[in-house]
Structure formats: C-alpha cells, structure tokens
Amino acid sequence: MKKKKWDSASILSALIVCLLYAAVFVAEQMMPPTSMLFTVLKKGATYALVAVSMNLLNGFTGIFSLGQAGFMLIGAYTYAIFTVPVAQRAIVYQYYNGGVVQFTLPVFVAMILAGLVAALFALLIGLPVLRLKSDYLAIATLGFAEIIRTVFQWDKLGPVTNGSNMLRLFPTFNDFNIRNAQGEVTLYLSTLVPLLIAGVCIALIVLLINSTFGRALRAIKDDEIAAEAMGIRLSSHKQMAFCVSSFFAGIGGAMLAMYQTTVQAKSFTTAMTYEILLIVVIGGIGSVTGSCLSSFLFVACSEWWLRFLDQKQVVGGFEVPLLRNGFRLVVFSIIIMIVVLFFRQGIMGTRELPDLLRRRPTRANGGEAK
Amino acid sequence: MKKVLALALALCLLVPAVVLGETVKIGVFEPASGDSGAGGKQEMLGMQYANQETPTVEIGGVTYDVELVYADNGSSTDKAPSAAQQLVSSGVSVVLGSYGSGVSIAGSQYFADAGIPAIGVSCTNPQVTAGNSHYFRICFLDPFQGTVLANYAFNTLGAKTAYCLAELGNDYDVGLVTYFKQAFEALGGTVVDEYFPTGTSDFTSYLTNAAMYSAEVFFSPVSIAYATQIVQQAASQGAAFPILGGDTLDSNVVANAAKGTNVALTVTTFYQEGANEAFDTGFKAWLASDSEAMTNNGGNDMIAAVTVMGYDAYYTALEALKAAGSTDSKAVMAALPGVTLTGVSGAIAFDEVGDAIRHSAFVKKVNNETGDWEFVTEQTVE
Amino acid sequence: MFNTVFPYLLSGISVGGQYALIAIGYTMVYGILRLINFAHGDVFMVAGIIMVYMSASGVPLLVCIPLVLLLTSVIGFAIERIAYKPLRTAPRMSVMISAIGVSYTLQNLVLYITGGLNQIYPTIPFISGSVTIGPATTKVVTVVTPVLTILLVFALVMLINHTKVGMAMRAVSKDFETSQLMGININRVISTTFVIGSFLAGVGSMLYFTNYTTVIQTSGAMPGLKAFVAAVFGGIGSIPGAVVGAFIIGIAENIIKGLDIILFKAGVIAKPMGLATFSDAFTFALLIVILAVKPTGLFGEKTIDKV
Fold first, then answer.
1. With an 8 Å Cβ cutoff, are B74 and C222 in contact?
2. Are residues B243 and B367 in the same domain?
3. Which residues of B touch C138 (CB under 8 A)?
4. Strand order in the sheet with B265-269
C-alpha cells in the first residue's frame, strides 16, 4: 500500500500546479483574448474534469460505464435552465411562451445543482444497471444516455427543456471577466475561473481516491469477490462511485454549456462519450494526471495544432498532398489506434505527477497496471 | 518524443503564416460536411465566384487583397463553436454565413464576444438576429416564408390538412414548421407536426403517418440529406400528396431525387435561374472552367439560390468594408446597418434588427422529367 | 385496425431483417471472444461506401455485388488481425476500447474520403422497384429482405451444426482454452467468424441502403447499436435469438413511429402526443428491461461464473 504523506514530491507537484495557474493568469492579461490558447485551456479544463470523473469509474472502480454524455447533458441542461436571465426567457423559449421556470439561480449554485441532478439520475439508473457485468453494464449505461437524450428532446417537456431547441443566452465563461462601468474588461478571468473550477473538482476526486473509500474502490477493481470477502459492501460502494462520478460529469456538462454558449440535447451523443473514453485511455486508465494531460493534448490537437491538416498547405511552392477537410481526424484516429494497440499504458500508466518527481518511481501498485 | 512532435507541429503552423502585401480577411462560416454540407458548398461557390471576380477591395484609399478564411461548422451545433473560434482567432474582419440557422446561433456568441460582425446568408430563423447587434442577414425570414408556404398550400394546392415533418433540434426546421402551422391554422386548415431524430434514414413510417392522417400536403423543410431520402421514399411508396419545402430543398441534389418519379415537389426560395442573365452565364462559365467547383455544385451547372445569396453576401461585406474605411471589425460592424446595394437576388438593405428588407419569395416546382426547377410564381406578403 | 397497423408492420419486418443480418455478426463474435465489436456497424457502413464508389467508377452491378461482399469480408478479417488479435491476452476492456478506436477510425476515414457529404447508393434494379401489398405500397426489397434473411440464417445454422468449422466454432464459444488444448486453431476459427459476420453485414448493407438510399460516415452507428441490442435481447451467442430480437426491434420501432395515429384511430388518445420521438429510445429501454429481468436474453443459455 502506498503511504500518502506530504513528501517533497507532493509539495513540488502542488507548487507546479500553482505556478501553472499563475502563468495562465498572467498570460490572460497580456495576450489577446481571441487567442486559440485560451479556447484550448477552457475546453481542456472541461474535458479534464469529465475525463477524471470517468476515470474514477473505469480506472479506479472497474465499472465500465459509457453513460458520461448522458450525465453531462443533464448537467448542462440543469445549469442552462436555471441561469437564463428572466428577461431573455421569452426569446429563448420562443415556442413555449417563455417556459415555466421564471427565476434564475446564481452561477455557482446552478453548477452545483447541475451536479446534484446528474447524481440523482445516477442513483436511479444505478439501481438496475450496476448489478450487471462489465460489457453489459457498458451497453446499458450507453442505452440510458440515449434515452435521456430523447426524453430531453420531447416536445411535451418543452416548457422546461425548450423541447429539442437550443438553450442559450445564459452566463458563459466570458461573464467571469470583470468589467468596469463602460463595459470594458479590466481583469480577464474567463480562462482562469474554469481552470480553477475544474482544479477544485479534480482535487476533491483525488482526495476521495486517496481516502479509505478510494482504497475500497481499488480493491473492488482488483477483485470483486476478494473485496466482498474483506467486508466491502459492493453495491453501496459502486453506487456511491457512480453517483460521485456523475456529479462531477454534471458539473463538467455545465462547464461545457458555458464553453459552447449554447446547449442542445442532440449534440450529447455516444460519440462524445467515446471521445472522453479515448482521452482516458490515452492518458492512462487509473491516472488522474494522465487524464488531465491528455485532455489538454487532445483538445489542443483537435482544435489547434492539427487544424492545418484540414487545409491545403503549400510548402516551398509544393502543394502537400492528401491535405483536405477531414484529414486531421484521420491522422488523429491513427494516433489513437497506435496508443491503444502499442502503448496500452497511455501517457502515464497509473502514475501521478508526484511519482514522476520522485527519484525512483514506486512500483508498489504495479500489479494493477495491466 | 511527444514534445518534439508538438513542437514540430507548432512550427508547421507558423510557416504558412507569412503574408505578403495588404490583406483583409473575410471569414466563411459554412458547413462543408454533414447534413447541410451540399448546401454549404453551393453557398461557398457564390462567395468564391465573387472573390475571383473581385479579388481586391479599396479600403480608405489602400487596395487590399481579399482572403477568404474557411471554417467548416460541420452542419452541427456542437462543431460550430470551434469553427467560430477558429475564425475569430485568425483575425477576420467580417464573417459570412451560415447556411443553416442552428449553426449561426451556435457560433453567434463567439463573434459577439470578439466584436466581429456576421452576415447571415441563408439562415432564415428570426433567432439569428434577434436580441443582438452584430448579426445581420441578407435573406428573408421564416415567419414570412412560413406564411408564403401556408398560403400556397392552402390556396393554390387547395390543401385543408397538412402534415409537417422536421428534424428534432434543428432550429431552421422547427422554426419554419411552427410559423407554417400558425399561418396554415389561421387560414382554417389543420396541421399535424412530427419530429424525427438526427441521423434517421427510414422515413417510410412517417410517410405512412401522413397518409393515415389523410394529409393533402407534406411539408418538410429539412436538410438536403433528409430531403432526398424523403422524396425517394415517397416515390417508392407511391405517395399521393405533394411535398412542400423551404429554401433548403432548392438544390439540384433534391431535384435529382425527384427526377423520374411522380413526386410533386414545390419550394420557396431566393432566386430563380434566368433572373439575371449576366450572372448566370458568368457563373456557368466559371463552373465549366473549374472541375472542383463543378463537383461542389453537385455535378451539373444548375444555379442554386444559395449560390446567389453567397455571391451577394460577399459584395455586401465589401461594401461594408469600403464604408467602414478600415479593416477593423468594430468599424465594419458600425458601418453595416447603413450598407445598401443592388445584388443579384434583389435590393439589399437592413432594418433596425439587422434583417434584410425583403418582401418577396420565388416559388419553384420540380419538373419530374428533366429534374430542373421551374418557376411557378413570385409571392409577396406584407 | 389491421389496415392501420399493416404498413408499419411491413416497414418493421423489412428493417428488422436488415438488423438481423448485422446482429448475427455481433452475436457470433460475442459468443466466441466475449467482445462487443463496436466497429461492426461501421463495417456495415463501409460496405455501403465501397458499393457507392465502385459503381460510380463504372464497374457493372453484377460484378460489384460479389466484389463488395468479398471486400467487406476482407475488411472484417483485417480488423480482427490488426486490432483485436494483438490484444488476445489483454483485459476485455482494452479490446472493447480498441473496437471503439476502430469504429472511430473507420468513420473518420469515410468522412475524409466522402468529404462528409451524403453519397447516393446505386440502384440495384431487381429489388428497387415498387410493389403493392394490400393497403401498402413499398419497395420490392422490403419483401425480399425477410426471405433472404431467413434463407441466410438457415444456411448459417446448417454450417454451424454440420461442418467441421462449425463444430470448432461451437467448441470455442463453449470453452476458449480447452478447445485450444484440443488442437483447434483458435485464430482460424475467430477469423472465420469475422469473415462470416462481415459478409452478412455486407448483404445487410445492400438491402438496407437500397431501401434508404444515402450513405454517410455515421450511417452505421445507429443500425449497429440497434442490431447489438437485438443480439442481447435475443440472448447473446444465439443466432436464432438475434434474428428474433432484430425483427421485434424493427417492428417495435416502426409501430412507435406510428403510435400516435394508431392510438388516435383506436380512440385511446384525443390528440397526438409526439410519441414518435421515442422510436430510438424505445430500443434502449427494451434493452435495459431485458437486462434487468432476464440478463441472458430470450434464448440465451445460463452461464455460471467460475471464481
């Protein structure tokens, strides 16, 4: 068993994280806000949170759930429904006479509520689903995500969900910027705040993983029957892990809503879940650091660094062949396949940031790395 | 290894960024893939044709080269934000697009936050321009189009019951069906509306539903991809009712699907081929000289109304740049409300919301033998 | 009442037959490898795309059809060799992730090749015409599908029950390791399974896309998922189960599309409820119910987990 002490490596890691935050803060004041860097950081923070929440299930508890998009949808909708300004509701709910919800909640309250509602749904869904075995569970959670998506699109729920139509005009990341009376931005916080939200949530997950409860989850992952024999109550632990994961996926959904500035049920497809699963795999199943790193890498590649593959490029008067719309995704999927087939450990395996800083990486938990 | 790769990629990005001379960038926010990809490509053709016709613009006494910067919004509201962000970060002065209303709304906030004006080309939903000051558009609106279609269905086709089919969560479809329903019911007809989930390809049961409700007209203002399927499946089911559509169905792809069948297909649109001889011949000559453009136009040289709209949008942007006297996006935004010009699709001027002042739409019908669009009438509603 | 329901039944039987052909691939692979082959729906889609491009390049249809089936089988074989075989000893989750990766790759590859635009499927002359049965008019393929499906399933069952390869397949699905010890060439059996599954998906794609004539990179996702649900519903590993499940799901989803009007005509509801929205969701609801009530499906054998 790994002893959790505040050794120098842990302190150093914490320092590194703080430095990164400071760097983002400074960069945000200096660089133009339209820079792609900030987009990547905002979306990366969102994905990092969702990926870590998925990792909590898939990597630490051994529950192979594919319902993440569904919980994100619930979070995103809860957030959006309760934060659209009352004055704008007539515009947003144009086909439903302004909808039935006629009040707004503060942004952070709505975000926590988003998590809670997602957790509540997880509780209900978990009852029948968590009894199932690995791949049946995967397909059942995937099915639930699809059902949720349809229910939220149902016309008859329109006064609440706006039917299948877009929800918009709610506060977004840009509203975290501090403005003066003239409406000019005096302090840019639109990137830092989402990073902080994600950071706090991920820190909570890390604390949970390192608690007694987290160790019980790992035991379940390694061997359910042995864990049960040791007195761990399987169903309640799984249920709890499922709810906690969904809670943070819900908050992640709310963040995605803020990032996208609009919410629509039809975009929360299984493809989104697959994307997050691939992030988790690239980062290393069972590593929080890995999930975070790969989220930012994944988003940066897809939104920024590999964009040039989608356009014609002329280098030295020579037109590079193959480059046209869609090539980026082909390259991307090939990279993913290579990782899946040849680097099954992903970037980090099961190691965390402090492990990298220690002189000799502890192989105490090498047994589960497979 | 990964760091080296990342660095190499970053370098690759910097290389093509070297520019020569004065250039003004116009963002093209259009779908090149997805359900509306075919339409988006036709709309882009209009811009590309206009761009090669007038590749420079004089702004404040300096001649600028106009560079079109493309971002594919994939016809989907979840891909639209990153496409919009891509245009914003490449520093465009003004954005043209999009083809669909949903993607326009989804990208809107990004343009607003960056202070970049956008000129909607064929996004007809009122929500695009409502409640903001940066989105303009040069096409007519759905309340108008819905009324035109309802009048046509009720008065000309003599239908008393209409069946409407729209894609779930597509703002354009849902909006147009709603306005059609209002107008049709006001005329004394009855409407049944149903919605299918994104990605549906089996429309047989919906067509059966329409027959069961004994609908006399089938109104489905859906994306091109779905429209072709609906037309074909209606043909093989021997559907008795005529199919009615909005401006999205005005595409040679859809017309081709109806070719050789008995499906009566009528649409409302912005332009009818033959209305402007000079544009028609010029554009066709350009298509003939560029095989890629021909492919993007669906393989023949039929002129889609959205191409004309794309063409007009490009010139609207140039007028705005000239009026602004600067490439600064905020100046362009301030200049746009005052811009007027006579485009191929008619006179263009903006009202206080930023919408085009237009009161007429063309009604076209497909000729089942040749697969061409035939002019029916020009409808006006005040 | 019958006249109201009949057209929906007809659509349902047709689409059900097409799902059945895909579902067999799922159920066979799962029976042997315990792997949900998420890429199977995409193999089905790729078969459609190959057909589009081949016939566009001027190859006559009669040559196209066998060639497409051959190529689809080869693709199925190649996917297994490249993406699943190296992971034979890895945990099941890794293989499933690899399957998701393959699905992602195939979709993106097709997106790139087609430019993300819908491709019109070529018309196969003898099954594309219209035919009128009772109160409904439909394509000939609608009638051909269930017949062809049942014929193919019959042939497959014969193959499994009465040939050496079939016996090997049954042995491997019963006990992977023991059959290996008994001298069965596991890799050959697995490859055969993939080839058969892909071949049937190829046939399915011809029938499906003749009915619904456009192919796009996501065309395989939904039919694939539904076919998988059908396989689970019928009892995974059981071929007749998969076929029955597929027909039930196909019919149910079409009935739901018309449920408003059916209930309306029967006087149950006064005005439409928008229930058609739930046509896809119902499939998944069915899945969850069956998993909760009878996890082995309709015809599945009860298995005991060994500790």
1. no
2. yes
3. 204, 236-237
4. B190-196, B161-167, B217-219, B243-245, B265-269, B360-366, B373-380
Strands (E), C44-161: 119-120, 130-133, 136-139
pLDDT tens string for chain B (382 positions)? Answer: 555 555 555 544 444 444 456 899 999 999 988 888 889 999 999 999 999 999 999 988 889 999 999 998 888 888 898 899 989 988 899 999 889 899 999 999 999 989 999 999 999 998 899 888 999 999 999 999 999 999 999 999 999 999 999 998 888 899 999 999 999 999 999 999 998 888 888 898 899 999 988 999 999 999 988 999 999 899 888 888 999 999 888 888 888 888 888 899 999 998 888 888 899 999 999 999 988 888 888 888 888 899 999 999 999 999 999 999 989 999 999 999 999 999 898 889 999 888 988 888 889 999 998 888 888 888 887 6
Domain-by-domain residue ranges, chain C? 2-121+135-293
Location of structure tokens 């497959």 = C156
C-alpha–C-alpha distance, residues A123 and A247, integer Å? 10
Distance CA C30, CA C297 (A): 14
Q: Find, in chain B, the residue whose alpha carbon is nearest to that of A303.
A: B82
Interface predicted TM-score of the whole assembly (ipTM), two decimals: 0.87
Task: Determine contact: A146 vs chain C, CB below 8 A.
Answer: yes
Instruction: List residues of C whose CB lies inside 8 A of any B CB.
Output: 4, 7-8, 11, 15, 111, 115-118, 120, 128, 130, 132, 136-139, 211-214, 216, 218-219, 221-222, 254, 257-258, 260-261, 265, 272, 274, 276-277, 279-280
Residue B47 forms part of a structural domain:
yes
Q: Which residues of chain A lie closer than 8 angstroms to C287, CB-CB?
A: 139-140, 143
Q: Is residue A229 part of a domain?
A: yes
Could you list the beta-strand ranges (E) of B238-311: 243-245, 265-269
- CB within 8 Å: B85 and A39: yes
Q: Return the CATH number at B251.
A: 3.40.50.2300
Residue B106 within a domain: yes
Q: Which of C262, A94, C246 is nearest to B125 (CA)?
A: A94
Q: At what angle do helices C279-293 and C239-257 cross, to 10 degrees?
A: 140
Q: Provide the strand spans (E) within B109-254.
A: 118-120, 135-137, 161-167, 190-196, 217-219, 243-245
Nearest to C284 among A134, A143, A337 (CB): A143
CB contact under 8 A, B89 and A155: no
End-to-end Cα spacing for chain C:
54
B336 CA to chain C: closest CA distance, Å? 34
Residues B192 and B44 in one domain: no
Interchain proximity B114–A164, CB inside 8 Å? no
What's the structural domain count of chain B? 2
Report if pTM > 0.95. Answer: no
B329 and B370 belong to one structural domain: no
Q: Is residue A223 part of a domain?
A: yes
Q: Is residue B6 part of a domain?
A: no
* Chain A residues touching B168 at Cβ < 8 A: 153, 164, 266
Encoding tokens for residue B225? 């991809």
Nearest to B9 among A261, A262, A306 (CB): A306
Domain containing residue B171: 142-269+362-380
Instruction: Kindly identify which residue of chain C lies nearest to residue A147, measuring between CA atoms.
Output: C281
Count of structural domains, chain A = 1
Partners for A (CB, 8 Å, 3+ pairs)?
B, C
- Domain assignment present for B27: yes
First to last CA, chain B: 66
B33/C117 Cβ within 8 A: yes
Q: What is the CATH number of domain C2-121+135-293?
A: 1.10.3470
Chain B touched by A325 (CB under 8 Å): yes
Contacts of A330 in chain C (CB under 8 A): 105, 108-109, 112
